[in-house]
Amino acid sequence: MNLLYVGDNRNRSNWGxxxxxxxxxxxLDNEFNVSQVIYGNYIAFDIKAGxxxxxxxxxxxxxxxxxxxxxxxxxxxxxxxxxxVNFSENSNDYLTLDFNKNLHEFLKYQGKNENxxxxxxxxxGCDAIVVNGEGSFIFSNxxxxxxxxFLLLADLAKHFGKKIYFVNGMISDCPRTGKNEIIFEYxxxxxxxxxxxxxxxxxxxxxxxxxxLDLNCKYIPDAxxxxxxxxxxxxxxxxxxxxxxxxxxxxESYFGKLDLSKPYICVGGSSLAAWDKEKAIPRYIELVNTLxxxxxxxxxxxxxxxxxxxxxxxxxxxxxxxPVETPILxxxxxxxxxxxxxxxxxxxxxxxxxGGTPCIFLGSNSHKTRSLQDVLEYQNVVEFxxxxxLQECQEILKMAQEILEEGEERRNKITTVVKKLALEAxxxxxxxx
Length: 433
Description:
Layout: E1 2-8, H1 15-29, E2 33-39, H2 40-44, H3 59-75, H4 99-108, H5 114-124, E3 128-134, E4 138-139, H6 145-160, E5 163-169, E6 172-173, H7 181-193, E7 196-199, H8 202-209, E8 217-219, H9 228-231, E9 264-270, H10 277-291, E10 297-301, H11 309-317, E11 321-322, H12 328-336, E12 340-344, H13 346-353, E13 359-362, H14 368-375, E14 383-384, H15 390-406, H16 408-425
Parallel strand pairs: 1-2, 1-3, 3-5, 4-6, 5-7, 7-8, 9-10, 9-12, 10-11, 12-13, 13-14
Helix pairs in contact: 6-7, 10-11, 10-15, 12-13
């Protein structure tokens, strides 16, 4: 069966997007022919301010040329096309809350717009569409652009009589803006029309179940758990000299800073804290300074472009950082070898767990750092603030000390659970048929 794989996010500035996208693609490749891919940056960024005829656009050249500018401007909360109207406000945008109009406008430009033709031909040329849901179905106000794009894909699938599968995702309200009822209603309608839906955690499954939908849905652990094969039996590489992690272009400031020859703990950012960096910086400085009382080396990990505030935290606390551009398996190896990982990031916590590294979870942009603890079978589910105040920093310190005292016993428990989850993740392809 020829598949169109939609939402391969390996070319986005995010460890989790990169890792789980690759892991899912590997699972699909084991059973199917992935004949075409729509990558995540194609979906998420403002490619053109609306549709127009005869647009000439080389996606790969554009992305390579402007990648850093895009990520830098996203970090600074600026709009990429500063001389144009915001994409979401453009009346000529093909992704709006008028779903019937979206499909009509999209089809109207078939044969007149290269971007439309690429998507149109990819859908026509496949037997089925597999959508990598990840965190796209957080029902926020305003709606996420990737959510709208996936809903359009579902309408295109129905229009052309193609099967569509929504997999490897989560379902959640937005803790910042509340539940977008319009998006929720239309998403569940598209889920019902789809061939199969898999969610990566039990809380997402129960969320859909509580809506009493006639839905072919199953909880299947995140595809990233299948990467346990890289880390089983402690046969994965252990990096001693952090210089070997330095990505292109090799900044002089990175050399000689990261020593991984001694035990260390990792501290990452949060998908919620990334929204308010000015608020996050002093809180993470205090967290890091508090953790210094443990007496173990600390390593900051910037697992997403949005966690760029950790660079300032590193400068203020004299703590080295593993940059977001680090090759993904090396990044996972750093986390898998840590004594402890503290963050509000979902997939990096899975990456740590692949090596048995215990995690302390901070808040995130959804229920994911809470529900992941249930997936990992943590006995006590605890989620600290994404902006931990002094009292919580001290509580995190106490919990960290207790976890470290458990040593290998704790790590072995995590590894046993992850081994089981890896096998469960691999059954996903059984439901694509």
